[in-house]
Amino acid sequence: MNYLHLVVTGLTGLLLFLGSLDMPNTGDPQSAPAVHVSPRYIEDSLKETAVPNMVTAVLADYRGFDTLVETAVVFTGAMAVLLILRSHREEQ
Amino acid sequence: MKDVAPSIILKVVCRRLVPFVQIFGLYVIMHGHSSPGGGFQGGVILASSVMLLVLCDGLEPVQRRFSVAMATAATSTGVLLYAGVGVLSLLLGANYLDYGILPGAEPRSLGMLVIEVGVGITVTGALVSIFYDLLGFE
């Protein structure tokens, strides 16, 4: 049974590794995000949001949904930990 | 947790330190717009100030001010505040989380500030309530 787990884990890792081969190199100026997404943020984020910190503008405004669900993940994780800890305490 | 009696030096230094830590946490949350920082980082700093206070003063006096129920409620309040901003912009006639419709001179900046505060409240509440529950074990 343990060998089956090892094979599944290995195959998943191999699949992820193969998928990463198609990714552009780090800092490649010709990659898709560097060609049209980044210039848009660099040139327009201050005009559009009036926030000088570009990272915050992307995090909280352009990707607001992502950050909302990220906060929900923190909330869900905390609730899971609390439920486990408190259920153990009641058993004692 | 057993009530430990740390030395007077430790107690005084911790108590003098905590306000500065908390002010720094608020600064990191509020200045996420113009300097590195934001809700996640500031919330962790605020939670660490509560932990420092517990380490030097013990659990009882701290929980009189910031109880387990308050910490747990804060965890969900932050998410509610964040989602509430989205619903508010929906009610004002824009898309969900489209802060441009909010009132004020710089509505997008305002919306980001509110959601960063929400994130900070959630992270503080989550870390503090996990810390409290871990200390509850003998």
Polypeptide structure, described:
With 92 residues, chain A is an all-alpha fold. Chain A has a domain at 35-86. Chain A has 4 helices and no strands. Chain B has 138 residues and is mainly alpha-helical. Helices cover 74% and strands 0% of the residues of chain B. Chain B has helices spanning 8-30, 39-57, 59-65, 68-91, 107-135. In chain B, helix 1 (8-30) packs antiparallel against helix 2 (39-57), helix 2 (39-57) runs parallel beside helix 5 and helix 4 (68-91) packs antiparallel against helix 5 (107-135).
Q: In total, how many domains does the architecture of chain B comprise? A: 1
* Backbone structural class of chain B: mainly alpha
The biggest sheet of chain A, with number of strands, parallel, antiparallel or mixed sense and barrel status, is:
none
Total number of beta strands of chain A: 0
Query: β content of chain B, as a range?
Result: under 5%
The helix count of chain B comes to 5
Biggest sheet details of chain B: none
Order of helices and strands of chain B: HHHHH
Helical/strand content category of chain A: mainly alpha
- Distance from N terminus to C terminus of chain B (CA atoms, Å) equals 6 Å
SS strand fraction of chain A:
under 5%
Q: Largest interface: which pair?
A: A-B, 28 and 38 residues
Q: Please bin the fraction of helical residues of chain B.
A: over 70%
Mean pLDDT of chain B: 89
Amino- and carboxy-terminal Cα gap of chain A: 34 Å
Unreliable residue runs of chain B: none
Q: Which percent range fits the helix content of chain A?
A: over 70%
Quaternary structure type = heterodimer
Tally the helices of chain A.
4
Q: Radius of gyration of chain A in whole Å, from Cα?
A: 21 Å
Can you tell me the overall shape of chain B? elongated
